[in-house]
Amino acid sequence: MHTKRTATVLVLTLLVAGCSAEPERDQVPSPSPSLSPSAGETETVPARTTATFAHGTSTLTVAAHPVAVDGDVAVTTLEVTVPADAEEPVDLGYLLIEDVTERKGARAVRLVDREARTALPVVRDDTVWASDGALTVEPGESLTLHTVHAAPSGEDVDVVLPAVGVVAAVPVVDSTQDDDAALDVDAARDELGGLPTSGGQSYDLRAFTAAYDDQSSVAVEGDDVTLTLTADVLFAADEHVLDPEGTRVVEDVARSIVADGAAGRIVVAGHTDDVDTEEYNQSLSEQRATSVADALRPALSDDQVVETAGYGESRPVAAGTDAAARAANRRVEISFTAAGTASPSVPTAPGASGPPSTDAPTSTDGEPVQVDAGDGSGTYTVGPATVVRTAAGLRGTIEIELVDGHGGAVSALFGEYGRGLSAARGFSAVSTHLGLHELTLLGETERLYPLDYETDSGTRRILGDELLAAGPQAPGDVLTVSVYWPDQGEDVVTIDAPDRFRIVDVPVEDEAR
User: Fold this and answer.
1) Are 133 and 34 contacting, i.e. CB atoms less than 8 angstroms apart?
2) Residue 415 Ramachandran class (φ > 0 left, ψ -120 to 50 alpha, else beta)
3) CA of 319: how far to CAs of 324, 419, 426, 458, in Å?
4) Nearest Cα to Cα of residue 404 among 435, 369, 376, 385
5) Of the candidates 505, 454, 485, the residue with the CA atom closest to the CA atom of residue 14
């Protein structure tokens, strides 16, 4: 039997504007398209945006040149330096791959166009336009990398290096107006054997939240909003007529649609689980969509046209036939385009609970917490954790250190591969098993999942580390991971990997001007 439960509130305030860090003029090794010693003579070079990240038993320093726009494409030039006292070389080519099936290279470097709130991966046509091969940096040496992306529209970008960190607020310049940028474009053209004839893709970031009771979720991508309610919130088992509680839920949804200024089409789509026949489920999904649409219309204006669709059991969001998967697949999705900033919500029942309690190791204020990975790889400290407010969202950075054990991939530290409505986000199997997709922030009534975006293939990628296949290998080794979350304007947040660890009251910092 289907279980009727009440809905919880989902309030999603889109991301607020942050401050951009100004690049500083640094003393760094002379740029070179190949390895060069970092010891000895240095010269003053044009302004670089420099960041240092814990890695292994030492650090990596990444100096990002201003991103050089050349027509429809943008060239990113990064100088990565390993200190002379490091115990071993760093193989960047293994860290920066995009998929476990790929050979080494800087293929997974991404830009975040902060103002536009878009992700810009490396351009791919017949060529992957990025430094390739075994990008090994010996102690005391530096390596210059080039990657090519679609041209950003904003004045600065974040440069995301998987398993390394984020170089924030890197300026964007026109290579036809800047001599140093023109040199970077020429160096990239020489190394890569040319540049693409047209720009790559720019993808809107999506914010996704799901209620703690897993009965509702909200996804906002650009101006497009999809509000999902499980059928158990709205209907009794095998029924298509809204009961009084379901009617109240839909009426509140209608008010949020009006508040968001939605105009044009509002699409209500019904979905079922796989119980009963395909014909029965198709009919039930259509009838449920019609019932919800009929309840919406009285609260809407004449220019808000409600359409319906039914998909039966053909579009499940959760794999499997257990009770939880089937409950997630029984749902109604309400999609519309908002005018400006969207804050869709569904109602909460009186006395609705806040964040769930946990028995997992817990710390406060961003301090480290010790966690057993549970897969036999060892014990780790997770933290310190920092959260910075940017125009694109909240950027989180966490250090992971192996305390004891043999180490390896650290994905076991970050939760299961997906549950309930969160399983609907559309990630690849590799990403769901090896990435940070379940590392969430805890709101009053919902989990805030990492920002993500949909690629041309239809697969989604999180804006953060998604291939943690090269974790700490020996006690004392450190790996730095990064992720972006939706910003609801909090001064402090709680970071939660379900059943793994929780870090409470992490202060949200503003970027330095």
Assistant:
1) no
2) left
3) 10, 9, 11, 17
4) 376
5) 485
323 Cβ contact partners less than 8 Å away, ≥ 6 residues apart: none
Cross-strand bridge partners of residue 116: none
Q: Which two tokens stand for residue 260?
A: 């968001």
Nearest-5° angle of CA 36, CA 96, CA 373?
120
How many angstroms separate the Cα of 59 from the Cα of each of 54, 56, 209, 283?
Answer: 4, 7, 35, 60
pTM: 0.86
Q: How far, in Å, CA of 391 to CA of 92, rounded?
A: 28
- Residue 384 burial (CB count, 10 A): 16
Cβ(230)–Cβ(236) below 8 Å: no
Given the structure tokens 């029942």, which residue do they identify? 349
Cα gap 191→189, rounded to integer Å: 6
CA–CA gap between residue 399 and residue 397 (Å, rounded):
7
Chain-centroid distance, C-alpha 424? 14
CA dihedral 187→193→198→199, nearest 10 degrees, is: -50
3-state secondary structure of 233: helix
CB 424 within 8 A of CB 318: yes
Gyration radius from the chain CA atoms:
24
* Distance from the first to the final alpha carbon of the chain: 57
Tell me how many degrees the CA angle 456-470-449 measures, rounded to the nearest 5. Answer: 50
**Structure tokens, 91:** 């193989």
Measured CA angle at 437 (ends 376, 346), to 5 deg: 130
Say which residue the tokens 């970031």 belong to. Answer: 205
Amino acid at the residue 233:
V
Listed in sequence order, the residues at least 6 apart from 67 whose beta carbon sits closer than 8 Å to its beta carbon are: 74, 75, 76, 111, 149, 152, 157, 159, 170, 171, 172, 173
Q: Which residue in the block uniquely carries the two structure tokens 């809204």?
A: 242
User: Which residue's entry shows tokens 């140093």?
Assistant: 180
- Return the structure tokens found at 417: 């591969």
State the Cα–Cα distance between residues 111 and 102, nearest whole angstrom. 20
- Antiparallel, parallel or unpaired: β 136-137 and 203-204: unpaired
pLDDT digits (tens, 9 = 90+) for 110-168: 999 999 999 999 999 989 999 998 899 999 999 999 999 999 999 999 999 999 999 99
Output the average pLDDT for the chain.
84
- Which helix (H) or strand (E) segment is 92 a member of? helix 92-95
Q: CA-CA distances (angstroms) from residue 272 to 82, 225, 284, 289, 304?
A: 54, 21, 8, 11, 26
pLDDT at position 424: 73
Q: Which residue bears the tokens 């979350």?
A: 485
Residue (of 418, 392, 254) closest to 328 by Cα position: 418
Per-position DSSP letters for 145-199, written without gaps between them: EEEEEEPPSSSEEEEEETTTEEEEEEEEEETTT-HHHHHHHHHHHHHHTS--SS-
With a cut of 60, say whether residue 305 has pLDDT above it: yes
